[in-house]
Amino acid sequence: MPVRVVVDSSACLPAEVALELDITIVELHVLNAGEDRSTSGLSSLELAATYARQLERGGDDGVLALHISKELSSTWSSAVTAAAVFADGAVRVVDTCSLGMAVGAAAMAAATLAKEGASLQECYDIAVDTLHRSETWVYLHRIDEIRKSGRISTATAVVSTALATRPIMRMSEGRMEIAAKTRTQSKAFAKLVELAQIRAEGEPVFVAIAQNEALEAAKQLDALLQAALPEGSSFMFVDVDPSLAVHAGPGALSVSAVFAHDLTGLSTGKTTSK
């Protein structure tokens, strides 16, 4: 049996892609209902049980675990604790420093190699390499939810509200930071396209657009990116996971992209190629 790949639901992997590549998804916790929703990371007991089941399925080949950035959730530290239960490094936990489909893409790449009989080390290496070649930008239609979550400073929130800006956030060293401030959705989309073009450097790109109650806007952004990015690029639509939607709010969109030479495993029935 091949190496088993485990992610949490913040990776935003569509169920059919996970099924196709035999990736296990563990759901993060969304607490309460209505406007007071919050989130909770996975416990070490939950993850140890998941890893044990996957080790039983995979035999001696091991488990590769990819979870949301340790700067944003307690899940990573729980995963490290859970992995220590198993002898001989049977479970490897990737320090992703990311979230969303950047993590999902790394899992897809690793799972593709695993199905071809790759070792745990080889799967780990391609996951880390994919993450290093990825970028994630998040367009916030409003900042109320992320302000409440503490993911941006009070000063930034006050200025953004006063100026009616719609910020573009970027994952940097595991944290969310402001990449650009725009006044309208159209200007935000133009900026996202510019950022992706610059980073692509003329090479094909894998792009996953995640949307939260913003499907039509996501289609508009997809059309702009397809027109701007190089031939050979591929594109995927996904939904923002509820654990992330709590903090991003309605209308939020994210663009997760993998750049450069190797797009192994990043072409499934869910993608469209340019």
From TrEMBL:
Key words of the record: Lipid-binding
Q: What is the lineage of its organism?
A: Bacteria, Bacillati, Actinomycetota, Actinomycetes, Mycobacteriales
Q: Name one GO molecular function term.
A: lipid binding
What organism, scientifically named, is this protein from? Corynebacterium deserti GIMN1.010
Q: Does the keyword field hold tRNA-binding?
A: no
Protein name according to UniProt: DegV domain-containing protein
> Which InterPro entries does this one have?
DegV, DegV_C, DegV_domain_contain
Lipoprotein as UniProt keyword: no
Q: Which domain of life is it from?
A: Bacteria
